Amino acid sequence: MFLKIGLAIFSTLILSCGTTEKQTQTTSTTETTSETTSNTETIDPQKMMVAGYLLGTIIYSDKEGDCPYTIQMPGDKMEFYYLDPINLEETYKKDGQKVWIKFNGLRRMNRCDKATPAEITDIKKGG
């Protein structure tokens, strides 16, 4: 009898500890998200570059053979290269808009002449 009661109390304690731990993780994730949201208003270029972001400019084109939207990236010696983002969100499809991006190059056939296919892993509005 005492064994069953002891086992029930022990099980309750173990289960309640696990629940508290999950709640703490959820709270800290929410705090981090709200901090990130407030920091996006004033973006420090140095911090963005250290975090692995690159600054680019959205370019719209309606010419034949061009991708509708590309991202112009700075290259070496004042030259540019272009990315063809396969997953650019509608909110960023504005000609001339500056964006901070992290991306992965894709090994696939180009959809347009001047741009290299890329998958955007993270994107934020630039300054």
List the helices and strands and how they pair.
Blueprint: H1 2-39, H2 45-50, E1 54-60, E2 69-74, E3 80-85, E4 98-105, E5 115-125
Parallel strand pairs: 3-5
Antiparallel strand pairs: 1-2, 1-4, 2-3, 4-5
Q: What can you see in these coordinates?
A:
The protein has two helices and five strands. It has 127 residues and is of the alpha+beta class. The protein folds into two domains: 1-39; 45-125, Beta Barrel (OB fold (Dihydrolipoamide Acetyltransferase, E2P)). A five-stranded mixed barrel has the order 1-2-3-5-4. The longest helix is centred in the first third of the chain and has 38 residues, at 2-39. It is elongated and about 80 Å long.
